[in-house]
Write a structure and sequence with these properties.
The structure holds two protein chains of two kinds. Chain A is mostly beta strands. Chain A is built from no helices and eleven strands. Chain A starts with a strand and ends with a strand. The radius of gyration of chain B is 14 Å and the shape is globular. The chains are: A mainly beta, B mainly beta.
Chain lengths: ~110, ~120
């Protein structure tokens, strides 16, 4: 089974709201990723967790706050977002960060910031 | 910084035609993945190629990884409307390189197959 699940599927929030995106995998993968994707463009890496520790932060604004409670779960906490943050947010996982670790993506959360 | 040049960006063809999508780089990749994505959904893995010169087939899709592990191609034979979507190539950075742990994506190819 190569399934990564994400909730919610859709999210609409105001600029003053606080919300969270959730991601889960049960493949025993030790690396998990958050990506942001605009329409018809490739995904852009935001964060990488390796063995539940933040390994890469691609200079993402602090209004995005990642959290890895355990090896199967990954959260992205959102606060005071801007309309330009509207996008498809993708979670992915891989066996590890080692060079040949194929990344498997979840279905994404479509976020609209009003 | 590693770059993957993917071409063409757009492809509009008739059902039954063949097509090839290319991904080229000046950098070496540890492995290369091809994904297909439909609007509003996450990328779905089609294949991972690892060895230089490797050829993999998935029904009507043929994937090649260049001998030097710097380029790859996706060939679709007798395209069908169900093949419509965004195709992404993505390379995995080599161990201890500056792109280690990251996927370098091509710009994507939007394929439309008309009935």
């Amino acid at each position: 089974d190569t399934e990564v699940t994400q909730t919610p599927k859709h999210l609409v929030m105001g600029m003053t709201n606080k919300k969270s995106l959730k991601c889960e995998q049960h493949m025993g993968h030790r690396a998990m990723y958050w990506y942001k994707q605009k329409a018809k463009k490739p995904p852009e890496l935001m964060f990488v967790y390796s063995y539940e520790k933040l390994s890469i932060n691609e200079s993402v604004p602090s209004r995005f706050s990642p959290e890895c409670p355990n090896s199967s779960l990954l959260n992205l906490h959102l606060h005071a977002l801007q309309p330009e943050d509207s996008a498809l947010y993708l979670c992915a996982s891989s066996q590890g960060m080692r060079g040949r670790g194929t990344q498997y993506f979840g279905p994404g959360t479509r976020l609209l910031v009003l | 910084t590693q770059l993957l040049e993917q071409s063409p960006q757009f492809l509009s063809i008739q059902e039954g035609e063949n097509l090839t999508v290319y991904c080229n780089s000046s950098s070496v990749f540890s492995s290369l993945q091809w994904y297909r994505q439909e609007p509003g959904e996450g990328p779905v893995l089609l294949v991972t190629v690892v060895t230089g010169g490797e050829v993999k087939k998935l029904k009507r899709l043929t994937f090649q990884f260049g001998d030097a592990r710097k380029d790859s191609s996706l060939h679709i034979t007798a395209a069908q409307p169900g093949d419509t979507g965004l195709y992404l190539c993505a390379g995995t950075g080599i161990y201890r390189g500056t792109s280690y742990g990251k996927l370098t994506f091509g710009q994507g190819t939007i394929l439309t197959v008309h009935p």
